[in-house]
Amino acid sequence: MTYFEGFVAPVPEANRDAYVKSASDFAPIMREFGVRRHVEAWDSDVPEGKVTDFRKAVDAKPDEKVVFAWFEYPDRTSRDSTNEKMMNDPRMQDMGESMPFDAKRMIVGGFDAIVEEGSAGGSYADGFVVPVPEGKRDAYRELASKMAKTFRKNGATRVVEAIADDVNHGKVTDFYRAVKAEDGETVVFSFIEWPDKGTRDEAWKTIMADESLKPEGEMPFAGQRMFWGGFEKVLDTAESQPAQQAPTPANA
To answer: Taking Cα atoms as reference points, which of 3, 74, 7, 76 lies closest to residue 231?
Structure first.
């Protein structure tokens, strides 16, 4: 399955255009280095949580929005090779000095896909960060796989669940702190791609009203500490690549 490098970053709302330009300038270099796909998505429908949320994850200030982003690779070896090239390319230092956001509060990590349904596409994405007990990986994967088919049935173009593989503890912020991970817990980075926000909103109404989808028994993750939000894509390099036919829900 695909390997993902996931990012969450706080960006001043006034710097949106500058951020999109910076990411667009950055994307061709990353493809040169080996990134198969690069997506940047801007804060659109990000709720405030009682315990955790996207804003708390990056200590966002009142004038800042949250960016949810990811790189895709065939495997971790490819990701590691790309990071090595980045470290040794002088263009990275120049770009790093002009970033329109506080990189010290950005969180980043490498994740291995455990569920991957559908094909890249659409203008909107839901992003999730979830704390999962190590002993419940299989149960989580089983539940996530079931729900992925439900999302696809209701219009999602793609559903990905990826579990922590190379996620470090940062000095200021990190994925573990973001979900207040406890001993024995790992972190899942997940997203659902939608054709547009309208499709996403209608799908969630249908899913939330479906009594057959109500959870039964103990859930294989800490629901009170997971967080999610809706994001408008502002960059998706898949759009510049040859289109792939998306599988239908029946054969996804």
So the answer is: 7
Task: Please tell me which residue, 242 or 19, carries the higher pLDDT value.
Answer: 19
d(CA 31, CA 21): 16
CA distance 91 to 87: 10
Q: What is the CATH number of the domain that holds 113?
A: 3.30.70.100
Q: What is the number of domains present in the chain?
A: 1
Q: Are 106 and 58 in contact (CB under 8 A)?
A: yes
Answer yes or no: is 103 within a domain.
yes
Task: Give tens-digit pLDDT for 144-199.
Answer: 999 999 999 999 999 999 999 999 998 899 999 999 999 999 999 999 999 999 99
Phi and psi at 249, nearest 5°, equal -55, -30
For the segment 78-90, the average pLDDT, to the nearest whole number, is 95
| CA–CA dist 6, 54 (Å, integer) | 13
CB 24, CB 238: distance < 8 Å: no
Range of the domain at 145: 3-238
- Classify the C-alpha dihedral 142-146-149-151 as positive or negative: negative
For residue 247, pLDDT beyond 80: no
Element (H, E) at 77: helix 76-87
